[in-house]
Each structure stands twice: as structure tokens, then as C-alpha cells.
Amino acid sequence: MTDKKQITFRIRRFDPDTDSAPHWDSYTLNVPDGMTVLEALHQIKAEREPTLAWRSSCRMGVCGSCGMYINNFPMLACQTQVLHLETNVVTVAPLPNYENVKDLVPNLEPLIEKHAAVKPFIIHPNANEVDEPTGEFIQTPEEREAFSQFTYCIKCGLCLAACPMMATDPYFLGPQALAQAYRYTADNRDCGLKDRLIAIDAFHGPYQCHIAGACSMACPKGVDPALAIQLLKRTLVLDSIGFGKKPSKVVRVMPLADVVKQIDEFAPPPRTA
Ligand code: SF4
Ligand code: FES
Which ligand sits nearest to residue 222's alpha carbon? Predict the structure, then answer.
């Protein structure tokens, strides 16, 4: 049995139906080693405050829904162990730079709308080939590496909460959407930069970024959106990868039925004793 430590959680509460302004409530728990902030919230809700509201799902840092402002830093509650914070008082507030729906629940709609605005999907001149492929768009390891780290984004929105530019310009597309604009533009299967221009080559686009780098510090998946934004700026200014791109070619591969037939006909070597 591990020792427990007494920790006070100061939680920002707000109910739009009854409160004119947010207030703070405190709850003290005996926290064992390994307990996450999300687990502490569940315990507080079960034992003390059934109306406490937040958003979470997977509990394993995958769905991106439990972003909160923990001790004044945007973090995933399910990935943050209370005792690793090394303090007796843990403050938990909703993510800044978003409208507060209730208690710890931010309105993530702007994040999703900005993401959708940059057309985050492969745009290829041969749309039929994308919808009903007859083969593969082959990628070399180097071509994949050009955008690989930006694919790890789980749309948690922590980067927008950390971004000082978002705090002054709510229309700024923000690090998440701009990183995804670069992720697809840098993909050798994509020729969609021209379709994305209306969203990204605009006043609230990448030039608003003044490279604070707070987004990259906050990202729980190791994505570097600040880097993506600078690479996107370079692409727009120097036309390094975007406009003159040739569509990648389709490589015919063995039909699936033949692959299955080969697997069915494969006879494993006899077992040895
Ligand atoms: S870039 Fe990182 S912090 Fe931003 S939404 Fe994606 S996973 Fe979250
Ligand atoms: S609950 Fe899914 S990332 Fe935290």
C-alpha cells in the first residue's frame, strides 16, 4: 500500500443557468501515487459534488477531450498525475481562449471549424482515384517523414489555449489548423494548396504567429505546430512545395483477391519437435 498525500483541488465553477460569474470551490482528497487529475475529478464528483462538469472519454491520452488548465498550464487531465505536480494545492480551470460552457467544459467549436476551414484531407486532381482507388499513391520514407509528426494531432486544442496570439485575436486560425494545413500541403499525394489559400493566405492566417512557441510546449503528443506554421509561411512565400506540385502517380498493386488467394495457398513449414 503506497502512502497517500493530502491535496487540495481548487476548481473553477461556473453554471450559466445560475451564476453571473465564475467562482472557485475547494475539495481536499487523500491522493495515492499514480492518481490522475481526471481520477481525482471523478472521485470529487462521486463523493462530494455531483454537479461538477467536465468532458472526457478515453482516459488514455487519445481522444483529446479532457484538456484543462491545470496549475495555469494547458494539460490533459487523464495524462497528468497529481503527485507529479509537486504541490499541495492543484488549481483546475477550463482551457483559456475558449468560451466556457460550464465548469471545466470549453466550447471547442471554433477549433473544429478552423480545422475544417483548411480542408484537412488529401486533395488530388483525380478525385475518383481517392474515392475509389485502383492502386496506391506510393510514398518514400523521406516523403512520409516530411509531414509525419504533424499527423499525431488529436485535436485536443491545448495549443490554442497556450497561444498568446489566440488571446488577442480570436479569429486567428491558430496552431492546430495551421499545422494541419501544412501537414496536407507537405504530403506528396496532395495538390490542394490552392484550395486552402482562401483560409490560410489571409489576415488571420500564419503571418499572425510571432513564434512564441507556447503551442509546441503545450502539445501532449509531441507535435510542433510552431514549426509547421513557419514551414507554411515559407511555402506560401517561396512556393517551395505547394503550387508547382505534380500529382503523385497511382501504382497498380496486386488485386486484393489475389493477395488473399496467395495467403490461403501458403503452406507453413512442418513443425519441428
Ligand atoms: S497540435 Fe498538439 S496541442 Fe494542438 S490540437 Fe493537436 S495534439 Fe492538441
Ligand atoms: S480522456 Fe481522452 S485524452 Fe484524456
Answer: 1
Residue with cell 512564441: 212
Average pLDDT over residues 71-96: 98
| 8-state DSSP, 97 | T
Q: What CA–CA distance (Å, rounded) separates 188 from 196? A: 16
**Cα–Cα distance measured from residue 195 to residue 118, given in angstroms and rounded to the nearest whole number:** 8
Give the three cell numbers for residue 180.
494541419
Ligand 2 site, residue 157, Cβ cutoff 6 A: no
Tens of pLDDT, residue by residue over 189-244, are 999 999 999 999 999 999 999 999 999 999 999 999 999 999 999 999 887 566 66
Helix (H) or strand (E) holding 94: none
Whether 59 lines ligand 2, by a CB cut-off of 6 Å, is yes
Q: What is the pLDDT of residue 19?
A: 97
Q: What is the largest CA-CA distance in the chain?
A: 77
Q: Give the β-pairing of 89-93 and 4-13.
A: parallel
Tell me the per-residue pLDDT of 27-67, one tens digit each, with 9 for 90 and over.
999 999 999 999 999 999 999 999 999 999 999 999 999 99
Q: What angle in degrees, to the nearest 10, is found between the helix axes of 109-117 and 174-185?
A: 30
Residue 151: name the closest of 127, 187, 124, 125 by CA. Answer: 187
Q: Is 63 in the pocket of ligand 2 (CB under 6 A)?
A: yes
User: How many Å apart are CA 38 and CA 79, to the nearest integer?
Assistant: 8
For residue 112, give the ligand nearest its CA. 1
CA dist 272 and 262 (Å) reads 24
In this model, does residue 170 exceed pLDDT 70? yes
CA distance 96 to 210: 19
